[in-house]
Write a structure and sequence with these properties.
By secondary structure, the chain is of the alpha+beta class. It is built from 5 helices and 8 strands, in the order ββαααβββαβαββ. The termini are far apart. The mean pLDDT is 93.
Length: 173
């Protein structure tokens, strides 16, 4: 599993998601608190979670050397969500995203994972610009984007969902 590790932070391990993670991804996406600000269809079952992993997450690894990565607490080796970078070919942009199990909200894990993911993208992958989006009512999420140094650039509608869009560029860290 060590070769699946992308990066480590003081408290977290971020590693590639595998099809074996389908039960964890399914459980994460069953929480009404998690679903509240999402603009994507709800997963129906673990097979649906496996399909998302196989068809959406895994190709990002092989095609773009990017991806959403499982966030694992070092203490206890517990899956608490995901964070990572995703190439959006329809917009030709790299998107920073994160999603955590609600019981782990408020401990700074999303900020820690997002900070290190952003640095990894800019410094290791040498990406020029990374964007982040958060539902316009998801104050906690767009506060994280601001806290990690991203700059608000606009409001827009994505899949019929109003979002705030943030950006950071290598030339303006």
């Amino acid at each position: 599993m060590a070769d699946f590790i992308i990066l480590q932070t003081p408290r977290l391990i971020l590693r590639r998601i595998t099809e074996a993670d389908a039960p964890l991804i399914f459980a994460l996406n069953r929480s009404p608190d998690v679903l509240r600000y999402l603009h994507e269809p709800e997963l129906k079952d673990e097979a649906d979670a496996r399909r998302v992993i196989r068809d959406i997450i895994l190709p990002q690894y092989s095609l773009y050397n990017l991806g959403r990565w499982a966030i694992i607490l070092k203490e206890g080796n517990t899956f608490i969500g995901w964070c990572g970078l995703k190439y959006r070919p329809e917009k030709k942009e790299i998107d920073l995203g994160y999603r955590l199990v609600p019981q782990y909200w408020g401990y700074g894990y999303a900020t820690e994972a997002a900070t290190h993911t952003l640095r990894y993208g800019l410094d290791i992958l040498n990406l020029e610009t990374i964007i982040g989006q958060a539902h316009i009512e998801n104050i906690a999420s767009w506060t994280i984007l601001e806290k990690i140094g991203m700059q608000y650039i606009k409001d827009e509608i994505v899949d019929d969902c109003p979002v705030k869009v943030y950006s950071i560029s290598k030339s303006k860290p």
